[in-house]
Hints:
By secondary structure, the protein is of the alpha/beta class.
Amino acid sequence: MNSNIAVLVPCYNEELTISTVVSDFHQALPQATIYVYDNASTDNTAEVARGSGATVHQEKNKGKGNVIRRMFSDIEADIYIMVDGDDTYDSTKCVEMVGQLIKRNLDMIVGIRKTNNFDGEYRKGHVFGNWVLTSAVSLIFGGKFTDMLSGYRVMSRRFVKSFPIVSKGFEIETEMTVHALQVGASYAEKETIYNSRPEGSESKLSTFKDGIKILKMILLLFKEGRPFYFFGILSLLFFLVSFVLSIPIFITYMDTGLVPRVPTALLSTGLMIMSFFSLVSGVILDSLGRSRLESKRLVYLSYKSSK
Length: 307
């Protein structure tokens, strides 16, 4: 493999594990440069990473999305490997993933986490939440991702440099997945063992708090990426509620010629107006969204593939 390879490791308080991660990836890919970006850690993560042979930088704006944005902007390479600094991913798989990326001329390979230790880091609740969110993205944007939230990815320069990141936190993997689907990037998946953290190391992921943030990101990307469907659904909901409310009012009017429930009639009328404007908004924003998507695709195509 003669390609210039960069291993990107975003870190926050990973003093106990970062040395192992750096050493393992050095051993798996001796020709790669390993970059550790310390995200305002309060322990000795940066010093330990530097002592292990990694190139260390600082990113003071907290959040994984902020770190990845900085990494993608700063680092020049042909192939990028993104991995967490918690020593939960199998470093030996990166050789196969890089080889597959080059051989098949892909833009991204995602490491699918496999484990039997559901009492450890990858709990059954996390598995179910991942399945729900991944299924939601597949339903909205298409694609057949299995583990959308995996933090282990091998990516081409074309994908990395064409990715306009807006995420600040753990929503970054969701945004990355949707970007791949929007620009038509080629991707594949590779199973990899997912290990529990060593004793004393704590996860930075909050199941409910970060899960809600990821769900919000999906809705935002849905609104921005497919506005006609987003506002079309709202329009349909407003129409149905308005229609149901109007039925008894219409029946009463036909029988008596009177409209006794004026507030309900006003609400029904207002909802019907909102339905109309939602539909119009969807049509207008869909035209603008197509222009933005075309611009993203042109930027993506302006970069050469990994071959």
